[in-house]
């Protein structure tokens, strides 16, 4: 989720030309290739079939960063979605408006070789490789659009609760399948460490309950201590038709669960550690 306010990024998004084409450098394409090759090796037996089906439809190139028009052509046919070229960070209103209109924001920059394993700002690899294959799935696509519509009308405090639901599903969700437990969240799929961690015995796996997800604190800069597991992806379609804002208000009354992680170190503490 890239909607942030009051924060700066060192990354500069590349602007497309009049034809919508972005001229990526050889180094940037090489970074994409490195990320693709190492992550594709981890996918079999770990990600859900719906993601693999989406990858097959998108046919993402391995040796270069895809142009957004290539991705758009597949998404439009599958679920009516498109990508939207955006800067590294965008306001919450823009983020929700794009999702509500079935346009998935993609920041047109790619991480540096020094930050291959982790960066706080979602880049084009995270958005395209992590999320776009799932956007070919109708249940996932409908839930994401519904989330955008709700967020657009929500108050700032309501949006904080909605963000937790998004984090526990779209970004870091697991799903049970006839073949076993699998990953569908883009935040896991685009991270080699998180991919291995999520399906290990280290974190807690809890049955998905939207009320619990709304009340669960998280940190963006650590391996997740807890993942919620869907019975199947159709749960997201059913959730899109429920009174999510009613659940948000109930969660606000109940309050948050105790965090399962230590507080984030302050800059001075981190420097002296």
Descriptive account of the structure:
With 273 residues, the chain is α/β, with parallel strands linked by helices. The chain has a single domain (26-254), classed as Aromatic amino acid hydroxylase (Phenylalanine Hydroxylase, Orthogonal Bundle). It contains 13 helices and 6 strands. The strands form 2 sheets. A 4-stranded mixed beta sheet has the order 4-3-6-5. Strand 5, helix 10 (210-214) and strand 6 form a beta-alpha-beta unit. Helix 6 (138-153) runs antiparallel to helix 7.
| CATH homologous superfamily classification | Aromatic amino acid hydroxylase
CATH topology: Phenylalanine Hydroxylase
Strand content: 5-15%
Overall, the morphology is globular
For the biggest sheet, the summary is:
4 strands, mixed
* End-to-end gap: 29 Å
Radius of gyration: 18 Å
SSE ordering: HHHEHEHHHEEHHEHEHHH
Low-confidence stretches: none
Please tell me the total number of domains: 1
- CATH architectural group: Orthogonal Bundle
Mean pLDDT: 93
Q: What is the share of helical residues?
A: 40-55%
Number of strands: 6
Number of helices: 13
The SS-based structural class is alpha/beta
Pathway: Amino-acid degradation; L-phenylalanine degradation; acetoacetate and fumarate from L-phenylalanine: step 1/6
GO molecular function: iron ion binding; phenylalanine 4-monooxygenase activity
Family: Belongs to the biopterin-dependent aromatic amino acid hydroxylase family.
InterPro entries: ArAA_hydroxylase, ArAA_hydroxylase_Fe/CU_BS, ArAA_hydroxylase_sf, Aro-AA_hydroxylase_C_sf, Aromatic-AA_hydroxylase_C, Phe-4-hydroxylase_mono
């Amino acid at each position: 989720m890239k909607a942030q306010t009051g924060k700066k990024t060192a990354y500069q998004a590349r602007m497309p030309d009049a034809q919508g084409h972005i001229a990526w450098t050889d180094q940037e394409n090489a970074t994409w290739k490195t990320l693709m090759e190492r992550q594709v090796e981890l996918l079999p037996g770990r990600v859900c079939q719906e993601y693999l089906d989406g990858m097959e439809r998108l046919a993402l190139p391995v040796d270069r960063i895809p142009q957004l028009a290539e991705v758009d052509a597949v998404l439009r046919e599958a679920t009516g979605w498109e990508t939207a070229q955006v800067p590294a960070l965008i306001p919450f209103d823009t983020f929700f408006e794009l999702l509500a209109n079935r346009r998935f924001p993609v920041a047109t920059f790619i991480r540096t070789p020094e930050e291959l394993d982790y960066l706080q700002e979602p880049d084009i690899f995270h958005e395209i490789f992590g999320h776009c294959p799932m956007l070919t799935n109708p249940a996932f696509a409908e839930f994401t659009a519904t989330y955008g519509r709700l967020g657009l009308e929500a108050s700032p405090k309501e949006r904080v609760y909605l963000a937790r639901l998004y984090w526990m599903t779209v970004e870091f969700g697991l799903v049970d399948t006839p073949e076993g437990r699998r990953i569908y969240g883009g935040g896991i799929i685009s991270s080699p460490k998180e991919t291995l961690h999520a399906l290990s015995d280290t974190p807690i796996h809890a049955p998905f309950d939207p009320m619990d997800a709304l009340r669960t604190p998280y940190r963006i800069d650590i391996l997740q201590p807890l993942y919620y597991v869907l019975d199947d992806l159709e749960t997201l379609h059913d959730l899109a038709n429920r009174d999510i804002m009613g659940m948000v208000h109930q969660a606000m009354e109940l309050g948050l669960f105790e965090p399962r992680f230590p507080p984030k170190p302050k800059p001075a503490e981190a420097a002296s550690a």
